[in-house]
Design goal:
ATP hydrolysis activity, Rossmann fold, ChlI/MoxR_AAA_lid, ATP-binding
Length: 332
């Protein structure tokens, strides 16, 4: 019993220290990104959970600025790739070149691509061909790339924040459902409110440079990710997550709307994502354990890209987001 108490005390002390440093991270990011507190929180939650996030929003909503400032505040190296239809897998992961020594001996040398970074922004990922998308998504899952039969490990931690433009669909290749499932969270980036937009207009056109400073480093981030997985989760929270995920599947639900409107439901990976993201959100908010409120807040970001609705000719069906949020309230 004494050993258990010591472990619990150690986790509490770690969580308190983590809450302080994460508050500093958010404060540094807020210097460069205005009024997107929810987006910043969800992106940080995905990284603390060890996953990747898909940001969906119109151009000009500070998605690139978010990734740059987040990389700096977290003390991670970061790169940006602008995806285009002619982008090849070798443009991302790298390629081999033939070198010749002064003695005339020839050998292949691997030139690393931009994926060899700790925080990668995959801008407009749906503009790349499926072949290029799969190269990135395979690296996201396996944390290494293989070129000419040789394995090259990616730097750790490794996280991807990918973006999609929901407005223009011409010339794009939508991500298949199996690849969408690789993203821990889907984050909708909305337009700023009036006061935030006023601040953006004034502060970003004044000529003053905003300097974001590191509040973490890679090793400290890795310890925070370890802490997230050791945080306790109450039985009530586990039951709520199970109830939500299973009730969102047409084959297992007791909800008539899900049976009638949902084409396919979330996989067990959705429940895993929700468990980890709820812990991350609790830690970001200075709490030791997740609550029902965390589950409700993260239900749509965790499940929204892992489900699909059937066409409803009546036009009376709720949106997928509304349906998920309603199921989350019932589960709690």
């Amino acid at each position: 019993m004494a050993d258990t108490d010591q472990v619990d005390d150690a986790i509490v002390a770690e969580a308190e220290a983590a809450a302080e440093v994460l508050a500093q991270v958010k404060a540094e990011i807020a210097k460069a990104v205005f009024g997107q507190e929810r987006v910043v929180e969800l992106a940080l939650a995905a990284i603390l959970a060890g996953g990747h996030a898909l940001l969906i929003g119109a151009p000009g909503l500070a998605k690139t600025r978010l990734v740059e400032s987040m990389g700096t505040a977290l003390g991670l190296s970061n790169q940006r790739i602008q995806f285009t239809p002619d982008l090849m897998p070798s443009d991302i992961i790298g390629s081999e070149v033939l070198d010749e020594s002064p003695t005339g001996q020839r050998s292949f040398r691997f030139l690393k691509g931009p994926i060899f970074t700790q925080l990668l922004m995959a801008d407009e990922i749906n503009r790349a061909s499926p072949r290029t998308q799969s190269a990135l998504l395979q690296a996201m899952q396996e944390r290494h790339v293989t070129v000419a039969g040789v394995r090259h490990d990616l730097p750790l931690p490794f996280h991807v924040l990918a973006t999609q433009n929901p407005i223009e669909q011409e010339g794009t290749y939508p991500l298949p459902e199996a690849q969408l499932d690789r993203f821990l969270l889907k984050v909708d980036v909305n337009y700023p409110d009036l006061d935030t937009e006023r601040r953006i207009l004034i502060e970003t056109t004044s000529g003053a440079d905003t300097i974001v400073r590191p509040a973490l480093d890679a090793s400290r981030l890795a310890s925070l990710q370890s802490l997230v997985r050791r945080m306790p989760v109450g039985e009530k929270i586990v039951a709520a997550i199970l109830s939500l995920v299973r009730d969102a599947r047409p084959e297992q639900t007791s909800d008539e709307r899900v049976r009638r409107l949902v084409d396919w439901g979330p996989s067990p990976r959705a429940g895993q994502a929700l468990m980890l993201a709820a812990r991350s959100r609790a830690l970001l908010r200075g709490r030791l354990a997740p609550s029902i409120e965390d589950v409700e807040a993260l239900a749509e970001p965790c499940l929204g890209h892992r489900m699909a609705m059937r066409y409803d000719p009546t036009g009376d069906a709720p949106s997928l987001a509304d349906l998920i949020n309603d199921l989350a309230r019932k589960a709690g």
